[in-house]
């Protein structure tokens, strides 16, 4: 995120540099210092350097304070928490991606000066063949940041009344909830799974699918990237992210931006799915997920295509890196002296 956002900020006329570390001398040359992530020695050193230099510090925690993230290596984080709370409270601003993350930050910090939602950009999801962006010092003064292109060579959405096909995209980690999805899969519906096979995860979920009697309707596809992944997303009737905890949930954005509705849980910050009429946002349990899947499966493909079109319009309006950079600029008006 840091490099991609910085590129857009440069395109808007800001002078931005990206570094893995900084000193107080570096900070004195800047109007503001953004420190991404939490807990690690480089992060803590950068916070100390900014405050020592008297340069406004802006923290970007990237979901590090969400409840599920705090439970990971909890005892180590407990040791560092007093230091992190000190730096978070002295930060001029904390930038977060969602309202859910804002709530988590305010609850944990208990005294943050300003917590502002700036969102996330998903432009890169539609440009799978462009190279990775280089470090900011190598950019020209006005980099040519690609806008949303038309999606090439995508098949039209199906219009027949055949069985519905759902798509899961993500790691095969217990937090992602694939076991709950397998148990809730509607009768007659199919599931395609885009996920790497790490430490024998496929075999475990294949055994579960057999026990549940759905193995003949579940296909594990492995890793898909670029145009192949986009086509799978487009071909699905709905993307399903049955997560227990998620800071953002890129898979949902990936589906919406190609015109496919999404189903996810309240473990992910996608309440806008219902507000924009482009998906389902359920409680984190099998019964709620089963009801959402059944509702989706009962709808005509024309209706699902209309939901997907609304989701795509939402993504194009609110989830570009340019829009994110503009929100960051607005947030900095009250920070930069």
Main β-sheet description: 6 strands, parallel
Give the SSE order as H and E letters. HHEHEHHEHEEHEHEHEHEHEHHH
Number of strands: 10
Mean pLDDT: 85
Tell me the CATH topology of the largest domain: Rossmann fold
SSE class? alpha/beta
List segments where confidence is low: pLDDT < 50 over at least 5 consecutive residues: 128-152
Q: What is the rounded Rg?
A: 21 Å
Strand order of the largest sheet: 7-6-5-8-9-10
CATH homology group of the largest domain: Glycogen Phosphorylase B
What is the CATH architecture descriptor of the largest domain?
3-Layer(aba) Sandwich
Euclidean distance between termini CA atoms? 25 Å
Question: Total number of helical segments?
Answer: 14
How many domains, as an integer? 2
- Taken as a percent bin, the fraction of beta residues is 5-15%
Notes on the structure:
The chain has 337 residues and is an alpha/beta fold. The protein has two domains: 2-121 and 320-332, Glycogen Phosphorylase B (Rossmann fold), CATH 3.40.50; 165-318, Glycogen Phosphorylase B (Rossmann fold, 3-Layer(aba) Sandwich), CATH 3.40.50. The protein is built from 14 helices and ten strands. A six-stranded parallel beta sheet has the order 7-6-5-8-9-10, with helices on both faces. The chain has a four-stranded parallel beta sheet with strand order 1-2-3-4, sandwiched between helices. Helix 7 (178-184) crosses helix 12 and helix 10 packs across helix 13 (301-318). The two termini are 25 Å apart.
């Amino acid at each position: 995120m840091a490099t991609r956002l910085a590129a857009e900020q440069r395109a808007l006329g800001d002078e931005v540099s990206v570094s893995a570390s900084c000193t107080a001398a570096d900070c004195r040359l800047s109007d503001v210092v953004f420190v991404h992530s939490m807990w690690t020695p480089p992060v803590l050193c950068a916070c100390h350097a900014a405050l020592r230099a008297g340069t406004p510090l802006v923290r970007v925690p990237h979901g590090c304070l969400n409840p599920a993230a705090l439970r990971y290596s909890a005892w180590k984080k407990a040791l560092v928490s007093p230091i992190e709370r000190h730096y978070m409270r002295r930060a001029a601003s904390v930038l977060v991606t969602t309202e859910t993350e804002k709530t988590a930050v305010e609850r944990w910090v208990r005294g943050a000066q300003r917590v502002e939602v700036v969102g996330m950009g998903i432009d890169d999801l539609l440009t799978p063949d462009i190279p990775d962006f280089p470090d900011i010092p190598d950019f020209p003064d006005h980099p040519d940041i690609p806008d949303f292109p038309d999606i090439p060579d995508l098949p039209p959405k199906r219009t027949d009344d055949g069985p519905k096909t759902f798509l899961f995209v993500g790691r095969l980690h217990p937090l992602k909830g694939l076991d709950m999805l397998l148990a809730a899969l509607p009768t007659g519906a199919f599931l395609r799974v885009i996920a790497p096979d790490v430490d024998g995860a496929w075999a475990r979920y294949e055994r579960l699918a057999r026990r549940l009697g759905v193995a003949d309707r579940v296909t594990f596809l492995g890793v898909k990237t670029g145009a192949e992944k986009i086509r799978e997303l487009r071909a699905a009737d709905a993307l399903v992210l049955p997560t227990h905890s998620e800071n953002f949930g890129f898979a949902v954005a990936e589906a919406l931006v190609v015109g496919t509705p999404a189903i996810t849980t309240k473990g992910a910050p996608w309440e806008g799915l219902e507000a924009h009429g482009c998906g389902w946002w359920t409680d984190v349990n099998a019964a709620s997920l089963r009801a959402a899947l059944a509702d989706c499966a009962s709808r005509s493909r024309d209706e699902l295509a209309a939901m997907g079109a609304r989701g795509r319009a939402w993504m194009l309006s609110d989830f570009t890196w340019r829009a994110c950079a503009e929100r960051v600029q607005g947030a900095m008006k009250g920070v930069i002296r």
